[in-house]
Amino acid sequence: MRYYSLKRKSPDVSFQDAVINGLAPDRSLYFPESISLLSKRFFENIDQYTNEEIAYHVIKQFIGDEIPVDVLQGIIKNTLYFDFPIIPINDSISTLELFHGPTMSFKDVGAAFMASCLGYFNKNNNNKLTVLVATSGDTGGAVARGFLGIKGIEVVILYPSGKVSDIQERQLTTLGQNISAIQLDGSFDDCQEMVKRAFLDNQIKRKITSANSINIARWLPQMFYYFIAYKQVYKQKKDIVFSVPSGNFGNICAAIMTKKIGLPIKHFIASTNINNTVPNYLANGVYDPKPSKVTISNAMDVGKPSNFIRIQQLFNNDLSSLKKLFSAYSFTDKETKNAMKQIHKNSKYLADPHGAVGYLGAKLFQKKNPKSLCIFLETAHPVKFIDIINETLSERIAIPKQIQSIFSKEKKSIKIKTYQDLKCFLNSERLF
After folding, report:
1. Is residue 68 part of a domain?
2. Which residues have CB under 8 Å from 170's CB, separation 6+?
3. CA-to-CA distance for 281 and 270, rounded, in angstroms?
4. Which residue among 58, 77, 111, 343 is the one 20 to 30 A from 119 at the CA level?
5. What is the CATH classification number for the domain harbouring 302?
6. Residue 397: is its pLDDT beyond 60?
């Protein structure tokens, strides 16, 4: 498989080079040269396949022969070793729980897959590779856990100071080993822009790649759990709809990719908080990114979503075609909290703020599409937002084992204010 830059100003590259580069030299994202449909027979018999077999069929066309079959199957096995259950909320709305992995976030899938791919590609390289990642919360923890201890790989996580939850911060600042955390006096958008700038800075002495969803090895494996979800419910209803809490739009973009390779999904909903760049675009046809605003659903506090350009590419930049398959709605913190209360009152289910936004998107869509089965993604365990849960629901949450261990560890991070500070850190002799 070859990958091209969406700006078309950089040479086409292999899967390996796209993963290692992260971002194309022209500052654009990589996109697969071709997308092939899976067979009709595969979908008709999907419940006869294991999750690992499904994932292999989904991803193999995007990798080609660059990773041996047995190695790729091993990578998938080490990625999908936990459950992805669908929990009914009512007769027409369910939730897909994506928080049963090691950091209790949906990003465990993409981070683990990418870490294993990079580990394979870098196994014979004596020069260390630095993974530089911006996070608004869960990406950092998942990447830190996914790359922990991998030979030849150093990880630098950049996050906005004071804008992630305590548990999220602990997950990315307490591991040590080959993981470094940097807190920036700024927003997630600022972090993301610094990361992109660093990629193209020829004065930085080390080889850098990204572990954000701009990296194809983080982005594409997110398709896996949509197929796994479909396997669980496809015999119930024909009109299946996914409502995806969206910030940087990598997850919803992966969802739409599943449709492009044949998954028979009726519609996709991007549910956002007040960072509503995309909902506004669908409403008025003007794409006008704004600085991000702080909300209780912090992982979605993105005013300039990097992955939306990939969604536009999937529809040949045709807004009318996009709107046939894709809707986007935004909701306030007040609406989010009310949704959390409503879900808990009616079904005894604890939704985190991001899941609650996804629920609201599903509920709004169903007003005009009552026969659909809407599945919203519960992208993080509610314990990661324990203060908001306690404030909103007065509900005590048991601390899962995956989280308990981090409270006894010391948070270690470096504070910076400018890009020059980041550059100096990356050029230091030793990061750790």
Report:
1. no
2. 406, 407, 409, 411
3. 12
4. 58
5. 3.40.50.1100
6. yes
388 found inside a domain: yes
How many Cβ atoms sit within 10 Å of the Cβ of residue 164?
A: 26
* Residue 366 lies inside a defined structural domain of this protein: yes
pLDDT for res 50: 97
Total tally of structural domains belonging to the chain: 1
User: Are 10 and 195 contacting, i.e. CB atoms less than 8 angstroms apart?
Assistant: no
Going across the sheet that includes 30-32, the strands are 13-14, 2-5, 30-32
Confirm whether 330 is domain-assigned.
yes
DSSP string, 108-139: HHHHHHHHHHHHHHTTT-SS-EEEEEE-SSHH
Pairing of strands 373-378, 240-245: parallel
Determine the structural domain holding residue 379 and report its residue range. 83-104+219-393
Predicted confidence (pLDDT) at residue 51 exceeds the cutoff of 90: yes
Q: Work out the angle at residue 415's Cα, subtended by the Cα atoms of residues 414 and 416, and round it to the nearest 5 degrees.
A: 120
Residue 431 has pLDDT above 60, yes or no: no
Query: How high is the pLDDT of residue 140?
Result: 78
Please check the confidence at residue 137 and state whether its pLDDT lies above 80.
no
